[in-house]
């Protein structure tokens, strides 16, 4: 969570504004052949074409991240198995900016096309030895975290960058911004804590404090604390006091 170059709320808002979900803003990528351009969209199986049209808009043209986490991050691929990536891609994540892409969930991609995307991500970007002998925390929390203890964990691992209350500090922006928390799931928070955002200068769970990686319990607890900061009505642009005073027109 250190050295974050861009505010998390900014990239979350960018994801919301990308009204085509994770897809690009239309059109085939420039390197696409004429045959691919004329092909029935349901028959396209080329990874480059599928990724460019459906994923690059949020996850970056090279998979290094953008409005959403980088899919080319080998640490992410070390904790998220193919079944997890398929589920998220196919069904989306309700209440967030991640849409469903599978035809059976209202999207445009066949199961084979989703399989081609997953296969391309895994074969191109995964590095099986990226963690060495280190055991990574589980992708999903095995049990609910303790928000009260999470406040202590936050002070230890996150406050030096994000500020004592999470509202932003000298090296990173707010981590409790209501607009941001309203666009991400608890699992997305957990993934970000474990994997970091290397393209933004945010390290993974091993490097927040030198020589002191976060334990799985600490990860679950700080995610519970972050989730507890999520407002009841995320994204409300005006305070209730301002509305009561007639200041909203």
Keywords:
Cytochrome Bc1 Complex, Chain D, domain 2, globular, disordered N terminus, 249 residues, single chain, 2 domains, mainly alpha, 13 helices
Give a description of the structure:
It is a single chain. The radius of gyration is 19 Å and the shape is globular. The chain has two domains: 8-125, Cytochrome Bc1 Complex, Chain D, domain 2 (Orthogonal Bundle); 147-228, Cytochrome Bc1 Complex, Chain D, domain 2. It is built from 13 helices and no strands. With 249 residues, it is mainly α.
The quaternary state of the protein chains shown equals single chain
Computed Rg: 19 Å
Largest sheet: none
Domain count, please report it: 2
CATH class of the largest domain reads Mainly Alpha
In the CATH classification, which architecture of the largest domain applies? Answer: Orthogonal Bundle
Count every helix, treating DSSP H or I runs of 4 or more residues as helices.
13
* Terminus-to-terminus distance: 38 Å
Would you tell me the overall average pLDDT?
A: 85
Question: What's the SSE pattern?
Answer: HHHHHHHHHHHHH
Instruction: Return the structural class.
Output: mainly alpha
Relevant CATH superfamily of the largest domain: Cytochrome c-like domain
Proportion of residues in β-strands: under 5%
Low-pLDDT regions: 2-21, 23-27
CATH topology assignment of the largest domain = Cytochrome Bc1 Complex, Chain D, domain 2
What fraction, in percent, of the residue positions are helical?
Answer: 40-55%
Overall geometric form: globular
């Amino acid at each position: 969570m250190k050295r974050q170059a861009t505010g998390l709320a900014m990239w979350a808002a960018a994801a919301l504004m990308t009204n085509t979900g994770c897809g690009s803003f239309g059109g085939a990528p420039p390197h696409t052949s004429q045959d691919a351009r004329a092909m029935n969209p349901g028959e396209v199986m080329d990874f480059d074409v599928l990724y460019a049209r459906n994923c690059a808009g949020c996850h970056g043209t090279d998979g290094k991240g953008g409005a959403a986490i980088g899919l080319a991050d080998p640490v992410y691929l070390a904790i998220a198995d193919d079944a997890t990536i398929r589920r998220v891609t196919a069904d989306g994540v309700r209440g967030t900016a991640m849409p469903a892409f599978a035809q059976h969930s209202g999207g445009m991609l066949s199961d084979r096309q989703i399989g081609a995307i997953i296969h391309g991500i895994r074969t191109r970007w995964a590095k099986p030895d990226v963690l060495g002998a280190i055991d990574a925390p589980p992708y999903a929390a095995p049990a609910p975290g303790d928000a009260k203890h999470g406040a202590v964990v936050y002070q230890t691992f996150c406050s030096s960058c994000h500020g004592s209350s999470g509202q932003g500090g000298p090296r990173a922006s707010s981590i409790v911004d209501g607009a941001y928390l309203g666009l991400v799931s608890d699992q997305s928070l957990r993934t970000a804590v474990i994997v970091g955002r290397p393209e933004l200068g945010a390290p993974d769970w091993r490097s927040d404090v030198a020589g002191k990686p976060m334990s799985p319990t600490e990860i679950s607890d700080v995610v519970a604390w972050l989730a507890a900061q999520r407002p009841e009505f995320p994204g409300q642009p005006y305070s209730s006091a301002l509305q009561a005073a007639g200041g909203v027109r």
